[in-house]
Amino acid sequence: MTNNNGKKPNRIVQLSDAASYVLPYLYPAELSAISLTCKTLHLLAKSVTAVRSSDACRNSEKLPIPFVNSAVDNHPYAYFIYTPTQVLSFSDDLPRQPWGLYPLQRRDLGLILPPTLEDGARCECERCGNDSAGCPCSRQNFSGLRWECGSGCICDLECSNRVSQRGISIRLKIVRSPGKGWGLHADQFIRSGEFICEYAGELLTTKEARKRQQIYDKLKSTNKLTSALLVVREHLPSGNTCMRINIDATKIGNIARFINHSCDGGNLSTVLLWRFWFESKWIKVFLWHQLLHRNHAF
Questions:
Q1: Are residues 94 and 227 both part of a single domain?
Q2: In sequence order, what are the residues at sequence separation of 6 or more whose Cβ sits closer than 8 angstroms to the Cβ of residue 173?
Q3: What gap in Å lies between CA 81 and CA 249, rounded to an integer?
Q4: By residue range, what is the domain housing residue 146?
Q5: Looking at residue 24, which CATH number applies to its domain?
Q6: What gap in Å lies between CA 112 and CA 152, rounded to an integer?
């Protein structure tokens, strides 16, 4: 085989080119094993590890969120399938997702997003104002539940009632602590009431959530798994109905999976957020912050 210049291609270059397409899809154990085969693959695997450690979000957010392990152990990062928003649950094997060497594109997620409906119920504000007081969407806010403008509304993404839709806008980092593992830390001063992130993961039915929790409880006793299954129960304004949302970020999720799941809520407030869609409302769980200084854990 010859290239366009009539010369035989360099085998190392061929190997590097082929490996650059394969290595980002490998799990950490597979990546470690292949790095032992030759010097070229060792260097490429090292590059993949460096990229993974530099940004847990795979370039999907405005700011990179790095893993920081100050010689606690030899774990440079935590492996999981990334999604910036909630996805439908996976009953079969999880998809492989490229991570390393190249930025992750939306088409690379390999996940099934819940359906969205674009028209119908909406506000007609061109700009809802800094306090959003005049917007019919935000007028329905009350403690623990917020309403945001959705795709059916006229206002654009800069509307002050679309804060969560602009993604993560503060500097964060994921720090490895002795005896505790990975945890999300602030990397800047955060004011009270600032939006942190959506709790992204698999949307589960209550039946599936209970089934998974039983599995996670068994694995926890053997120290083989730390689950990130979040169950939120909210009594609606009528007082007659309790809404339950089950989001599992154990294997598929975003950086919210590294937040401390304390019983008292820690220094975070969990807020249910509705957006206006066609003849329905789309609900998500978001995390809003109390005052926090740099390097403090959530």
A1: yes
A2: 65, 66, 67, 68, 184, 185, 187
A3: 9
A4: 56-298
A5: 1.20.1280
A6: 22
pTM score: 0.81
91 vs 101: CA distance, rounded Å: 29
Tokens at residue 43, please? 């260097």
Whether the per-residue pLDDT at 45 is higher than 80: the answer is yes
C-alpha radius of gyration, the chain, whole number: 22
pLDDT at 253 over 80: yes
Closest C-alpha among 164, 177, 169 to residue 295: 177
Higher-confidence residue of 144 and 56: namely 56
Please report which helix (H) or strand (E) contains residue 133, including its range.
none
Structure token pair of residue 200? 């992204």
Number of structural domains found in the chain: 2
* 115, amino acid identity: P
Let me know whether 87 and 37 are in one domain. Answer: no
Nearest residue to 250 via CA among 112, 5, 80, 117: 80
